[in-house]
Amino acid sequence: MEPGDLFIPVDTIEEEATLTCDAKGVPPPQYRWSLNGTLINLGLDRRRRLSGGNLIISSLDRYQDVGMYQCMAFNAAGAILSRRASLQFAYLDHFKVHTRSAVSVREGQGVVLLCGTPTSSGDLTYAWVFNEYPYFVQQDNRRFVSQQTGNLYVAKVEPSDVGNYTCVVTNSVTKGKVHSSPTALILKTDGVMGEYEPKIEVNFPDNVSAARGSTVTLECFALGNPVPEITWKRANGVPFPSKVKMKYSNAVLEIPSFQQDDTGGYECVAENRMGKNTATGRLAFYAKPQWIQAVKDAALAIEERLHWECRANGKPKPSYTWLKNGQQLLSGDRITVVDGVLSVSALALSDAGMYQCVAENKHGVIYFAAELMVLASPPDFTGNVLRALLKAKAGTTVTLECKPQAYPVASILWKKGNLVTLSPDGTLRLANVSKSDAGGYTCFARNRFGMSSTTGRLLVTDPTRITQGPVDMEIIVGESIVLPCQVASDPVLDVSFSWAFNGQLIAKGDGHFELVGGRTAGDLMIRNIQLYHAGKYICVVDTDVESLSAVAILIVKGPPSPPDSVTVEEVTDSTAQLAWSRGRDNGSPIANYFIQTRTPFTVGWQRVNTVPEIIDGNTLTATVVDLNAWVEYEFRVLARNSVGVGEPSPVSVRTRTEDAVPDAAPGDVGGGGGSRSELVITWEPVPEELQNGESFGYIIAFRAFGEVSWTHVATSAPGASRYVYRNDSIAPFSPFHVKVGTYNSKGQGPFSPVVTIYSAEIEPSGMPAGVWARSVSASEIEVNWQALSYSPERVLGYEVVYWEDDTKPETMGKVRVPWNQTVVTVSGLAANTQFFLTVSAFNTAGTGPFLPAINVTTKKPPPAQPPMNIEWTLIGSQLSLYWEPVAATESESEVTGYKVSLSYRRQRHKEVNALTTANSTAELTLPEEEEDYVIRIQTLSEGGLGPASEPIRVHRLSKITPGCHGYGALTTRTVQSAAVGGGPV
């Protein structure tokens, strides 16, 4: 970090000023400072001290501390100087206190009021107060305040200008202001000034220098009557760029961001009707030096030559000096300093140090530093010894390099046995080596500081050969192959194999590739080959001394790629002309194409018929036939070759076939039933894909038996499936011929075959007699009646309606039976409940009348308690059972007996035997040759069967031992009887 220029207001001189300086080095640097080229003795100066490398000045003095400061950083390696930095003090003294004389002018005359700026340092700005503060003079084409001189210029005095004028000066750094004594402006009474030509009072210098990027301001103002008009132009006639601004009625020309193009002559013209006057000057460009070529640190051997060159641009062109450790270098015996170039011949250790190139013109000075290290040491092979063992193939050229680190450069000598060879550049080259060249080689290096050596051994090997390499192959997608790569090599060599595919190294971890084989084989296995595996395969064999390769081309055949650009070129009501472009055949010529289609009415894609029927691989058009009219179709094309069928093409644009007359008739025409005086006709609607066009509908035709003409009725609902013809003259259950046809906007389609149906019939008028019922169990009632002996109406059967309570219609149920049946059992009823029943005849028109309802009550439910405490005895095949009798509760049906069920498996089929008994005992004979038996016992009552007991399981082993017994515990768990020999259980 280098010091920067400081501009300090004098009213802050009690504060400290800091000039920065920070450098890096090993060991850490120390610092010195100079003022105006003279070293500052900090030991004797109490106001100046160092903080790190920074110079801190306290109790500032505007006379002693002003000047140019420079920092030097130094350590054992050398010294460098920083840039020079200025320390200045900004101030503005007061005007001298005295009465200024009045200025007397005629009206119309021009006048200049002088400011008389006091001594100062720092940029100043000027303004004028008219009569009293804060009324400032407003600048216009007649009045101008120069920021160069501070003077007030009035081109033509008017009576309103009479008054007192005070100059106000402001320091831009200190922000301080001072006021002059007032100057009175009065008019003479001896007349008015006549008109006269312009007189330029404010002009810019003949030559103005400006820095790149700065803002240049030129002033020009003239006195005259009438008030002159100011204009500007360039001497070369080139118009001003847009960045140029005119201010204060053109009295000021401002050029921001000054560049080389802005240099040249400028002209100010002041003109009125009495004449004109001109002022001219030139703008010159200057630039501080900037580095375009700098020097770099150098480490050179003793006695070598140093050549450093630095270059800087700037205007005017900079001059150069060189410093060593902060002191200027001059040309001498070994040193040449010429225009930025430093040369030192035959470097000595004393030449080491820090050097600086200094470029300077009148606008600035820059420094660039570099370190020179002068090296001196004996030869050293550390880090650069000969390889202990170097292998080379017979017949090749071997290069042995001897590159020790030595300052100055060492002379080199090679030795093998008694053979000695000198090598100026340290390199020993052995051409067309053979086994006789093998052995130890020693390199000796010497300079004036010492000698050193390094030794290595050369081993000459036989050439490596690829004995079996990969060959060009064709293979089918999905198969696997091995590409061989086997070598014969010298046993002392390390051999490695790698493969490249289409120029890219095959990396480990690719699931398709695997390197197989041992030391002399690097075969490549490719599993599940895909199309993208086609290309060039290179086996690369690397040894210690050489690299070999073998190449094979692999052609992968697969199903064809999808055809492309499927278009529908022409459509009729049943055909579509298709065209497509060929996809890749993937190594096997395309044998044929086939076409699939999809509509909103199909599930998935379906193959379609075409003309030609078989589309060969060279044909790219076909006509699809047997299409339905007025249906939107999508098409895709698939290609087949000897490998298989490829992926389908992209889907074509959805295309609708043309409309046509319907060619399908409704199916399943029938009907009948309905209400009195109705003929109900039904049919299966024609699917939408077979309607062939818009405005699709049905034509219903019917006629009574014996009639010749048909009655036709049309319906325009394409989804209709039923039509009802009503006419009071239709006799009940009269036969009719019926057929249903189709039509659409193109015309009428076919009719269905003629069928016979019957008109609506009248419900039966007779009612069944002799209706009676009895309760069969807790959930069943048996109902009986007498069949109708005669009925003018057709009777299809009988309907039994039953309910619990007339006030609860939701409890109603019904059962229907055929006309030849007069008894039915109603089941699923509630126990011990009264039910009401009626019986009536029915046909398709409904049910007929019925007699008043009868009632019957269902039985009480069977006991809810199953038989328990069951004991059994098995002797041979005779099983004796005993259980505790079940007693019914008051709300249950009395027990009338028991049902015993025996189940077992015979030839994989389950068989069940049952017996009933009035007692709580039973005797069973078990079937022979069976393994397991399950026995359950239920109660018998008027209410039906009660719940079964827990199952009793008897195993076949129980039959082997006479006198086995079992006991069923009175629990709800399953009872399992274990067979135990030798006594009762």
From TrEMBL:
Keywords: Cell adhesion, Cell membrane, Disulfide bond, Glycoprotein, GPI-anchor, Immunoglobulin domain, Lipoprotein, Membrane, Repeat, Signal. Coiled coil: none annotated. CDD domains: FN3. Pfam families: fn3, I-set, Ig_3. It is found in: Cell membrane. One of its GO terms (cellular component) is axon. GO terms for molecular function: cell-cell adhesion mediator activity. Residues 648-676 are annotated as: Disordered. InterPro entries: FN3_dom, FN3_sf, Ig-like_dom, Ig-like_dom_sf, Ig-like_fold, Ig_I-set, Ig_sub, Ig_sub2. Residues 1-88, 93-184, 198-284, 289-373, 379-461, 463-549 form the Ig-like domain. It is a lipid-anchor; GPI-anchor. GO terms for biological process: axon guidance; brain development. Interacts with PTPRG. Belongs to the immunoglobulin superfamily. Contactin family. PANTHER family: CONTACTIN 3B-RELATED (PTHR44170:SF18), PROTEIN SIDEKICK (PTHR44170). This is Contactin-3-like. It comes from Takifugu rubripes.
